[in-house]
């Protein structure tokens, strides 16, 4: 189970969320601890599943060049593992959530063009175990608190 040990862990995580590319030497200096302490904390946080990856956030002009869509995915019984595995391989997949209600999953996709989104939807529809997809293309983002 993910575990944040103390204030040092919280401070380290806050610095990484602001800049995941910050060097361990700079992190150590800003936190007032030894570089080896930062390395040990990072290793533990990664091992414990608190940190599961590092990412890049694109500037708004770059992000605006593509197309985003939410895809409701309905699957057949006992196909969840394979469908999840196949969807996770798509580089355009931003988030995959299992949900209650009409769909089994909601996939958030980000493609560089409508034609690429169309091809992605075809790929998703051809995955063994996917019985139905319903797509909503994002026309405009009204509020964004993710970044």
From TrEMBL:
GO terms, molecular function: sequence-specific DNA binding
Q: Which UniProt keywords apply?
A: DNA-binding, Transcription, Transcription regulation
Keyword Glycoprotein assigned to the entry: answer is: no
* Superkingdom: Bacteria
Asked whether the UniProt record includes Membrane among its keywords, one would answer no
UniProt name for this protein:
AsnC family transcriptional regulator
PANTHER family, sorted: HTH-TYPE TRANSCRIPTIONAL REGULATOR LRPC, LEUCINE-RESPONSIVE REGULATORY PROTEIN
Which GO CC annotations does the UniProt entry carry?
cytosol
Q: Where is the HTH asnC-type domain?
A: 6-68
From its record, what is one biological process in GO terms? response to amino acid
An example Pfam family from this entry, by short name, is HTH_24
């Amino acid at each position: 189970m993910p575990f944040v040990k103390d204030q040092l862990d919280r401070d380290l995580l806050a610095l990484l969320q602001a800049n995941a590319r910050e060097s361990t030497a700079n992190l150590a200096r800003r936190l007032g601890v030894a570089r080896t302490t930062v390395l040990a904390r990072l290793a533990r946080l990664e091992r414990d599943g608190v940190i599961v990856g590092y990412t890049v956030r694109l500037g708004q002009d770059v992000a605006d060049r593509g197309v985003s869509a939410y895809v409701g995915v309905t699957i057949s019984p006992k196909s969840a593992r394979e469908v999840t595995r196949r969807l996770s391989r798509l580089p355009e997949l931003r988030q995959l959530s299992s949900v209650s209600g009409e769909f089994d999953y909601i996939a958030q996709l980000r493609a560089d063009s409508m034609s690429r989104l169309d091809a992605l939807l075809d790929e998703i529809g051809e995955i063994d175990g996917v019985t139905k997809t319903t797509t909503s293309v994002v026309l405009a983002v009204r509020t964004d608190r993710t970044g």
